[in-house]
Design a protein that fits this description.
Layout (H helix, E strand, L loop, with lengths): L3 E4 L4 E3 L5 H10 L5 E2 L7 E5 L5 E5 L8 H19 L5 E7 L5 E10 L2 E8 L5 H13 L2 E7 L1 H19 L19 E5 L5 E4 L3 E4 H10 L2 E4 L2 E4 L1
Parallel strand pairs: 8-9, 9-10
Antiparallel strand pairs: 1-2, 1-3, 4-5, 6-7, 7-8, 10-11, 11-12, 13-14
Length: about 230
């Protein structure tokens, strides 16, 4: 199950934006093939959970797509659908090139008021130096990059960033009050939870919908404070 899917024309749709009456009407009027799952492009059916939450599900058998790909595709669809709901046109797998000639491909790329943003979704392990290298490539291209990762990836990354922060910023002495999540000011990272209603988790136990988090990215209220990236 997923909250975001694609129409047959390739438009991202967020089920969570529908009032329940409108969702039930869409369920009655939709035909097979009107919507497809983001993970495998198989036909999707519209459903409502016992808690009244709208969602999309596979028409027949469970998806055989690898778990990493499912999370990645569901995450991209959620981001693109949230952007569309904000009146912003995003592009997925958008290529670019830095001034030095290095190539990159953003999972989601969009522009607002003359600024360009990349949203990168990283489910599997990636070394800290690769996070920083890719971040620097975007910075050199005048692109503001923000990362969404899985819980496990966030914890693993946090160990590496904490070690670097302690050595670089605190002379290997644990500061009074701790170092928050241990994340770095030059590397904006949050957790994307795609189960049930997709949410972005950040700071110390805080969360927001994908749309609210994106709005914070755009207006600058998603900031680095006290050792953690937080929405103000």
């Amino acid at each position: 199950m997923t909250q975001a899917a694609w129409t047959r024309e390739g438009v991202p749709v967020d089920a969570g934006t529908f009032p329940i009456a409108a969702w039930e009407e869409l369920k009655r009027s939709a035909t097979v093939g009107d919507f497809v799952m983001p993970c495998c492009k198989a036909p999707a059916v519209l459903k409502t959970s016992i808690n009244g939450l709208p969602f999309f599900a596979h028409l027949s058998d469970e998806c055989a797509t690898a778990p990493e790909t499912v999370w990645h595709q569901d995450g991209k669809a959620s981001v693109l659908a949230a952007l569309l709901g904000m009146g912003i046109q995003g592009r997925d797998e958008a290529p670019g090139r830095s001034p030095s000639g290095g190539r990159w491909e953003a999972d989601v790329l969009f522009s607002v008021n003359g600024r360009t943003f990349a949203i990168e979704l990283q489910r599997s392990y990636q070394n800290l130096r690769d996070f920083l290298r890719r971040q620097e490539r975007y910075t050199a291209s005048s692109v503001e990059c923000y990362w969404l990762v899985r819980h496990e990836t966030f914890f693993t990354l946090g160990k590496a960033t904490s070690r670097l922060a302690l050595k670089r910023d605190f002379n290997n002495t644990w500061p009074e009050g701790g170092i928050g999540t241990g994340m770095l000011p030059e590397l904006p990272v949050a957790v994307l939870d795609t189960t049930d209603t997709p949410r972005v988790l950040f700071g110390l136990g805080k969360s927001a919908t994908v749309a609210v988090w994106l709005a914070g990215v755009i207006d600058g209220s998603f900031q680095y404070r006290g050792g953690a990236w937080n929405l103000g």
